[in-house]
Structures are given as C-alpha cells and as structure tokens.
Amino acid sequence: MSSDYEYSDDDGDYYDDEEMIDGTQDDLSGASEDDMDMDVYGGDDFKVTPKGKRKSYEVDYDSLSQSAVEKLVKEDVDYICSICGVDESVASLLLRHMKWNKERLVEKYMDNPTSLLVAAGVTAPEPTTTSAQSRTRSIDGSASRRSTRGATRILALGGSKTKSPTTSPPLSHYTPRSFKPKSDEPFVCPICFDDSSDLRTLALDCEHTFCSGCWNAYLVSKIRDEGEHSVKCMAEGCALVCPDPFIRTVLVPAPGAPIGDPTQEEDNRKAWSHFQELLVRHYVASNKRLKFCPYPGCTNTVSCPSAADKSSLTTIVPTVSCGARGIGGQMTQSQSQSGWGLTGKEHKFCFGCHIESDHRPVVCSVARMWLKKCRDDSETANWIKSNTKECSQCQSTIEKNGGCNHMTCKKCKHEFCWVCMGPWSEHGTAWYSCNRYDEKAGVDARDAQSRSRASLERYLHYYNRWANHEQSAKLSLDLYAKTEKKMEDMQITSSLTWIEVQFMKKAVEEVERCRMTLKWTYSMAYYLAKGNEKDLFEDNQRDLEKAVEDLSELLEGPIEPENIPMLRQKVTDKTVYVQKRNEIVLEDTAKGFLEGRWKWNASVEGFDEPERTEY
C-alpha cells in the first residue's frame, strides 16, 4: 500500500546546506497564561522563546531557570503574607505544609489559624497542664497576632523571655540576639555534653537549646544527606520546624562574624545552596504545570500547562527542552565552540511521564507499556512456552531432548505423545510419527503452542528493530568523532572552509534524531491493530528508515578528494529529504492521535478497549 505522504528523491529541487531546515524543532515555545502568571518574567530566566506557529507534534512550553522559579516562590510567599498577616518565614512554612496550595491554605487559616500553625510546625501545641504552663513562656494575644511574630528565637546561654521581633529580619542580616543569663547554672549541650563557659547556644521558640556546633552538623546532615526541606527541632518529639532565617544564620554567618574553619564554611555554603534548590524542587513537584529537568546537575524547570491534565496525554506527546545543553547544564569552552558529542546534547525529555527521553511519536501510555514488556520476564515465559510443553497429567514443564515422540513425565510417570499431547497408549506402535490429528485435546494443545510461538516471533521482530536503533543512538558519540575527523580531512584536501563542511555535522545530527523517531515507531507498531491505518503508518516508517540508512551509508563511506563537491551535494540533498520524511512520520502520527484514528490490539490507558486480532 502506498502512502498518501510519499516523497521521492526526484520530487524536490537540490538544496544547498545553508538552505537546510533548522533541525532543532523541539525548542518551540509559546507564551502561555496560567494561574502562576509566568509571563511576567523576562530576560535570561526564560531559555526558550516563541518561534512562530507550532507543528502538530509540538507543545507550547516555557523554560525557567532556578532564579525564575524562586521569583514565583517569592510571589506566593508575599501573597500569603498580605492575606494572612504573617511574616515571610511563617508564610514559607505554611506553604510547604500545604504543598503550595494558596487557596486551600487561606481557607484553613481563616477557619482555624492555631491548628494550621501547629500542624505546619510554626508554633508548639498549647500546654495542657499547669506544670507545663509554668515551664513555657506566657502567650499574649490571639493566635493570628501570635503568628505574625518570627517563628524562631536564637538564644544565648540561659536565654531570657524577651519576645521575638514582630517581623523577620532580611535573611542576609539575620543575626543572633544576646540575652542576660537567667541563672548561674552552667549549660551542658544535651548532644555533645560540651559545658564550656563561652559556648554559643541556639534554640527555636520551643526553647530546646543546643550548641551551635551540634545545630550546624544536624542541619548539614539533614539537608545534604537526607534532602530535607523542612527540618524539625533536634529535641525528641518536638514538631517545630526550623524557619529559613534560622537555617541561614546557622550555616552562613552574618557579615563581620568571626571566620571559622574554611572547609566547614565551604560545606555550610554548599548546604545552604542545596537547601534553596530543595525548596525550588518541592515547589515544582507540588505544581502539576511544572517539571524539573531530569538531567544530572541541571537546575532548570519547564512549564507546560497543556500537559498538566493527564487526559491530554492521549492526544499529545509533550516533548520539551529546559534550554540547557551538556552534562550538568553547562558546557566547557571547547564543547561550546565545537558543539559536538553527547556532552553538548540538548536537554530534551517528556513532560507527561518519567521517560527521560524524547519518545515521539508514541504517546506516554504506549511507551510505558512497551518498556515494561521489554523489562519484565513475560517474554521468558513466551520462550518456555515455545520450547517446552506441560505434562497433561501433572502440568510439569518438559523440554524435549531427543527425537522420539514418546514422552514420559519423570514426576508422575505419565506417558504421552509430544506431537499431539494425547495419551501414548492410544498410539499403537507409531514410535516416531503421529497420525492422530483429530483428537480434540491434541488439537487444542498444538494451537496454543503455535500461537505462543507466533507471539514470540512477532515480539522479537519489533524488539530487534527497536533495540537496533537504540544501540545506534548510543554509538552516536563514535559517529560524531569519526565525522569530525572527516570534516578536518576535507578542509585539508579541498578548498572548503570549516563553515562549508558543516553539512556533515548537520547530517549526523539528523540521522541521530531520526533514529530516535524510528526506534519508537516500532513500539507503536507492535500495539497497533491491523488495518489501513497501520499499513499507512508502516509505509511512512519504511520510507524514513530507507532514507536514514542511505544517508548513514553516505556518511560512513570513504571520502575521495576529487568527489568532495559531489558528496557535499548528495549529503545535503539527502539530509533535507530525511528531515522531510521524519516530519511526515511525526505530523501524521500526531494528527492521528488528535483525530482518534489509531486503534490498538491491547488495552491502552486512556483509549477504548481493542477488538482482539489474531496474529
């Protein structure tokens, strides 16, 4: 069957490499309006800029740096401060407790502020006994007025009952207060048992006091080792949470403070930086419109409102890019100049699922099904069914290891025929052949065996091709290196400049991109139901695969100096053709999802139940 999207090498004109279509089509981004008003921020915070009308297989999204997300966090904190009349440190703790749901937070705060403040770890529960009341500080005013005070007091040895300031000082100037000792009893740290007279002590409003060294070690451990963004008081059973100013004061001394151990100070600064990143990650994880870049070391975030609703994932494949390149979001100078290798690859991933790659054209639910099938042992069971049979008496699994069809189960001693699975007593003297094809039990057994074998062969057909393209993509680094060497040789043996030999680099990038498309088309084809739509899909798949292999052959073939001009023209033309074929596959598949054309041979999440098809 021929495809409506057929494209021939003879159908188009020749292209020069300067006229080639830009291959980075996945950077498309449009301004989107949502509850977070993300479009108010400009400059470098947004890595992706609008590039005109998007294609059917693309989605609108914005890429934000960590500083841009921190601005969004600050907006939410300021909003809660203005509505609830609390300071920034309290607002931040409340938002974290409510998973950054501002509307729900305001509702619960107006209903019962004391209960919410206690649940969020801002204040300690009210004492229930007279003796307990005598050991705690008196609490003046209503709960709402109490909540406007800072949630933290930093006490010196034997701290007094002086009230906390009504507003939290700025983080960069938050310094400990000094108080007169209330008794002459020496203080002993409950953790390290240090009783030095000059020991610096710190405490939250619960007045559980510990030395600054223990607080420092505790906070660093909680942040660095456990990834905690809400660190509770060290005292056993205490639910108070350390607010941000307290953590900043412990980890990052105020300007003019005595210089301590340089190594410890560096660890503290790293811990504070990691704490800020943890806050951003918690904010992003709590917002379904945001997703953190999964690449190691990258701190960028992507906003994709169109993929926030899971029901939309049956019609779109939300492939996005955070705007960064390379490992850790940064490239070395040499990588930036050459743009080669996996270290300079764009950070592309799927916003709708946990597959950390571009799995277009197949939707997330089908991609997950395929990966699960490749991971689990279901195909091992298929192999067993194809190469073994079960004893009809005790159901033990038996593998045939000889030519005789007379089988005896070692477990139950049942004798049966390997060919028809019927009892051997009914076979007379036919030791090496079986003519009993009309026995119902034997027919059913043979049919099941054939179906199992056919299922395995079908799976292996798609899996081998899927794995082949995956392996080719993994070898792309070697292909990059070989092609770069050829580009250098071409400059030496011809009059072409470095800019003029870039057609080789563009061709390699296009081959890698198309192999990823081909890889996932096989997972989709495996689950597609038989019919005209599948035939059309496989026609487009075949045309793209043939074009990619032709271009790969041109790239990997030997280069003769006298043939360089002709090679340049061929590679350039073939690259454009391959790109067009890739566009056809992606566009047609995306439109098929939008129009509901695709039917499946298995149950797929979000789609109608399939009509069973025998293969």
From TrEMBL:
<dbReference type="Pfam" id="PF13445">
    <property type="entry name" value="zf-RING_UBOX"/>
</dbReference>
<feature type="compositionally biased region" description="Acidic residues">
    <location>
        <begin position="1"/>
        <end position="25"/>
    </location>
</feature>
<dbReference type="InterPro" id="IPR001841">
    <property type="entry name" value="Znf_RING"/>
</dbReference>
<dbReference type="InterPro" id="IPR044066">
    <property type="entry name" value="TRIAD_supradom"/>
</dbReference>
<feature type="region of interest" description="Disordered">
    <location>
        <begin position="124"/>
        <end position="179"/>
    </location>
</feature>
<keyword id="KW-0479">Metal-binding</keyword>
<keyword id="KW-0808">Transferase</keyword>
<dbReference type="Pfam" id="PF21235">
    <property type="entry name" value="UBA_ARI1"/>
</dbReference>
<dbReference type="GO" id="GO:0008270">
    <property type="term" value="F:zinc ion binding"/>
</dbReference>
<dbReference type="GO" id="GO:0061630">
    <property type="term" value="F:ubiquitin protein ligase activity"/>
</dbReference>
<feature type="region of interest" description="Disordered">
    <location>
        <begin position="1"/>
        <end position="35"/>
    </location>
</feature>
<dbReference type="InterPro" id="IPR045840">
    <property type="entry name" value="Ariadne"/>
</dbReference>
<dbReference type="InterPro" id="IPR002867">
    <property type="entry name" value="IBR_dom"/>
</dbReference>
<dbReference type="GO" id="GO:0016567">
    <property type="term" value="P:protein ubiquitination"/>
</dbReference>
<feature type="compositionally biased region" description="Polar residues">
    <location>
        <begin position="161"/>
        <end position="170"/>
    </location>
</feature>
<keyword id="KW-0833">Ubl conjugation pathway</keyword>
<dbReference type="Pfam" id="PF19422">
    <property type="entry name" value="Ariadne"/>
</dbReference>
<feature type="domain" description="RING-type">
    <location>
        <begin position="189"/>
        <end position="233"/>
    </location>
</feature>
<protein>
    <recommendedName>
        <fullName>RBR-type E3 ubiquitin transferase</fullName>
        <ecNumber>2.3.2.31</ecNumber>
    </recommendedName>
</protein>
<dbReference type="InterPro" id="IPR027370">
    <property type="entry name" value="Znf-RING_euk"/>
</dbReference>
<keyword id="KW-0862">Zinc</keyword>
<feature type="compositionally biased region" description="Polar residues">
    <location>
        <begin position="126"/>
        <end position="136"/>
    </location>
</feature>
<feature type="domain" description="RING-type">
    <location>
        <begin position="185"/>
        <end position="438"/>
    </location>
</feature>
<keyword id="KW-0863">Zinc-finger</keyword>
<dbReference type="Pfam" id="PF22191">
    <property type="entry name" value="IBR_1"/>
</dbReference>
<dbReference type="InterPro" id="IPR031127">
    <property type="entry name" value="E3_UB_ligase_RBR"/>
</dbReference>
<dbReference type="InterPro" id="IPR017907">
    <property type="entry name" value="Znf_RING_CS"/>
</dbReference>
<dbReference type="InterPro" id="IPR048962">
    <property type="entry name" value="ARIH1-like_UBL"/>
</dbReference>
<keyword id="KW-0677">Repeat</keyword>
<feature type="compositionally biased region" description="Low complexity">
    <location>
        <begin position="141"/>
        <end position="153"/>
    </location>
</feature>
<dbReference type="InterPro" id="IPR013083">
    <property type="entry name" value="Znf_RING/FYVE/PHD"/>
</dbReference>
